[in-house]
Amino acid sequence: MRIGIDLGGTKIEGIALDDRGKELFRHRIATPREYLATVDAISDLVKLIETETGQTGTVGMGIPGTISPATGLVKNANSTWLIGQPLTEALQDKLQREVRIANDANCFAVSEATDGAAAGAHVVFGVIIGTGVGGGICIDRKPLVGINAIGGEWGHNELPWRSDEERPGHACFCGHSGCIETFCSGTGFVRDHKGHGGMGDNGAEIVE
C-alpha cells in the first residue's frame, strides 16, 4: 500500500492506494498553523489511514516549499511555520520509516505528465493556485528541480503589467512586494475581498 499526503496551507489530505492504484481510503483535516502540531497531525493521519485499511504503507508527501538540498530543512514555504524546520527527520522519527517529501507543484506536474492532462508531452508546466501560488516543470516526466530546488516556481515574480493602483503591491512573506502570489492566491483573494468591504475569511466563505 502507498500512502500519499498533500500538505497545504489550510488542509492536509491523505490517500491510500493499493498496488494497482485503486483508492482504499481518503481523509482530509485542517492544517494546524504551528510546526510541531503539523508534524503530529500528519503522523496521526497516517496512523488513521493504516487503522482504517488494516495495512502499513510507504509514505510520500507533497509540501508547499521544498527541502533544501544544503541543509535538509524546509525553505520557501508560504506555510511559514515550516521554514527552517527538519520536517523529514521529524516525520521519520514519528513514523519509524522513510518519508519521501517533494514540492507539491512538482508532484502535480509529474502526475499530469505521467497519466493526466499532459500525458505524452515533452515539456510540462504545472500550476497550483491554493493558499499560495506554485509551479513545477517536467521534462520527459521528470521534474526540473534546479540547483536551489525551486525550479518552476513563479509565484514570487512580480505581477506583470500592474496598474497604478496595484503598485507597489502588498508585502510578501518572501521579503518582496507585488509578488504574483499576493494577488492570485487564496490569501490574495481574501485580502482583496476584505479590501472591498467583504467579511469572508476563506474562499468557501467568500463564494457562499
Describe this structure in words.
The protein is α+β, with helices and mostly antiparallel strands. Helix content is 29%, strand content 25%. Strands 3-2-1-4-7 form a five-stranded mixed sheet. Helix 1 runs parallel beside helix 2. It starts with a strand and ends with a helix.
Quick recap of the structure?
The chain is of the alpha+beta class and 208 residues long. The protein has 6 helices and 10 strands, in the order βββαβββαβαβββααα.
How many β-strand runs? 10
Give the class from helix and strand content and strand pairing: alpha+beta
Principal-axes shape call: globular
Query: Rg from C-alpha positions?
Result: 18 Å
How do the strands line up in the largest sheet?
A: 3-2-1-4-7
- How many DSSP helices? 6
The percent of residues in helical segments reads 25-40%
- Unreliable runs: none
Order of helices and strands: EEEHEEEHEHEEEHHH
DSSP strand (E) fraction? Answer: 25-35%
Q: Termini distance?
A: 38 Å
Tell me, rounded to a whole number, the average pLDDT.
Answer: 95
Sketch the major β-sheet. Answer: 5 strands, mixed
Give me the secondary-structure topology.
Blueprint: E1 2-7, E2 11-17, E3 23-30, H1 35-53, E4 58-63, E5 66-67, E6 74-75, H2 87-95, E7 99-103, H3 104-115, E8 123-129, E9 133-139, E10 142-143, H4 180-184, H5 186-195, H6 203-207
Parallel strand pairs: 1-4, 4-7
Antiparallel strand pairs: 1-2, 2-3, 5-6, 8-9, 9-10
Helix pairs in contact: 1-2
